[in-house]
Each structure stands twice: as structure tokens, then as C-alpha cells.
Amino acid sequence: MLEIKTLIDEIQEEAKRAEFPLDEPIYQKAGAEPTQPILYAGNLESQLCVFGRDLGKDEVANRQPLYGAAGSLVRKGLYRTLFNSEARDKTELEKVLDQVLLTNTVPYKPPGNKAYSTAVKQRFRPYIERFLVCHWQGDRIITLGNDAFDWFSPYAPKGTLKEFFQRGDRYSSSQPITLCATDSQGNLHQRPITLLPLPHPSPLNQRYYAQFPQLLQQRLNAIFQ
User: Fold this and answer.
1) Is the dihedral of CA 189, 190, 193, 199 positive or negative?
2) Can you tell me whether residue 112 is helix, strand or coil?
3) Which secondary structure element, helix H or strand E, spans residue 171, and what is its range?
4) Which of 116, 128, 187 is nearest to 152 (CA)?
5) 8-state DSSP, 82
């Protein structure tokens, strides 16, 4: 755990180095330090990672990625698959964290509901790379929404992910990539990963919101059953 704490400390140092958009009122309401990253929840030894865009107010309040309405849909689907029953409450949903890792493109909450700029994502990319390659032990990533999927574009030949995303079967097919990261000593590490994209489970995503539970279930069945 010392190593992951070191990475979290380095992320906070980077956040303090120069200003970037932070939803400070939400952090203040939650009694949380805005520059303290909320990097992940779950098990670093799990085979599956669920990768979202960034934090919301519920995530800040509870110090966990994917805790709010959209995240609860993901957690409920995981619980249903893993335990073949419905969770009674959010406390019971916590059981899924033994078998999944939850994280985001940036471990902070932007003001409002706007995605972080490419510049902010690039600024924190080396840390997210190192987290996924050097700390997490799995090899399958479910991405939630376009921003989360696009984050992985640098790890495939140019245009590969864009071409994949134009396919009609993108939410049932998979895309292999090779994640790369440089550790704190400057050593390069690589890991083959399979991306399993899904639409973002937001009520604002009218095209796919109703379909999301079934699409998620199909992904999870292929992984856990």
C-alpha cells in the first residue's frame, strides 16, 4: 500500500503545482481537501476495471468514484452478476468492490457537469497510466461514455479507436490496446488490455439510458460467468 500512497501523494503535489478547474464549493460542503485526489475504489487485484470520466458531487461526498446515480447503476449490475440477487441498499453494494476496480480519467471534480479539457487530462495522464499499469493487476476495462473511451486513443495505432467507435457493434465487441507507463524511476512498463466500451449511464443519454442495464449485463456475463 505504500507505493499506491506514494502515487496518490504525487498526484496531489501535481494538483498543487498549478491551478486547474476544481468545484471547490462541492469539496467544501463535503469537508474534503480539493487537491486530495479520489483515485479509485475497489480491488487492485481484480481482473476488471470500470473507467469513467470524472467525479460528481456524490463521489466527492463519499470519497469514491462511481458512487452517484450513474455509478449505482454500474454497482447494481455488478452485484446482480456476482451474487445473483438484488442489493438492498448502497452499503450492500459495497461488496462488489472486492471484485472490481473503479477509477476515472481525472481523479477530481470539475465545476458543474463539464468534462475536463484535454490539457487537464494530459496533465494527469502519466499518473493514471502508472496506476493502471503498475498498480492494478487486471486486463479488462469497461469504459463509460465517449470521453472515457477516447482517453485510450494514444495506446492504439492512430485512428483505430475512432474507427472502432463508428461500428454498430461497438457496445458488444472489444478492442485490444497496449497501455504504457513510465514509473518514478523512469522505467517503461507495458501491459496488454482489452477495452469493452459502454455508453455513459446518464439519464441525459436518452438514446442509451434505457438500454444500459442490459448492455452492462452482457459485458459482465462474458467476464464473470
Assistant:
1) positive
2) coil
3) none
4) 128
5) H
